[in-house]
Amino acid sequence: xxxxxxxxxxxxxxxxxxxAQALEILPGLWEFESRGVVxxxxxxxxxxxxxxxxQKLPPEQRQAMxxxxxxxxxxxxxxxxxxxxxxxxxxSQALPFQDDRPGCNQEVTERSDQLWxxxxxxxxxxxxxxxxxxxxxxxxxxxxxxxxxxxxxxxxESHARWVGxxxxxxxxxxxxx
Length: 177
What we know:
Elements: H1 4-15, E1 28-39, E2 42-43, H2 47-56, H3 59-71, E3 74-76, E4 81-85, H4 87-92, E5 105-111, E6 115-122, E7 125-135, E8 138-147, E9 152-164
Antiparallel strand pairs: 1-2, 1-4, 1-9, 3-4, 5-6, 6-7, 7-8, 8-9
């Protein structure tokens, strides 16, 4: 069974920015703070708890988790996970959070300047959600995912905020995994 830490991080990576792919958001460093995450009826820890849990991991496990995140183009931030979005990704709408596994698709079902509704289907999960845009530097997403098997329904709320144009050493991700 996967740990709550792993589930929270992978859920955040998979769905935090789903509908943002078509918004003209700013390139650069973004931080995604997840809250209200419930998987299979059980609340998952908030990001502060995740950070504390990561600090308690043996060094080799913590390093492995950080390397897994880095391969996906993300790192732990102050309040959530951080991702670097290149100007090319933003312009081409090829952001790293869209699930590009075979059989996965996503569509925006309703679109206005401040609200996007979307749904997605993959062989092992499906879901829907909405994103409310405060600006090109901030948006909030609510997602409900139904996963095949025992995990049931996952509910997640996330807040994305632009940190700045400089990503430091973090490289843009290439796709969800």
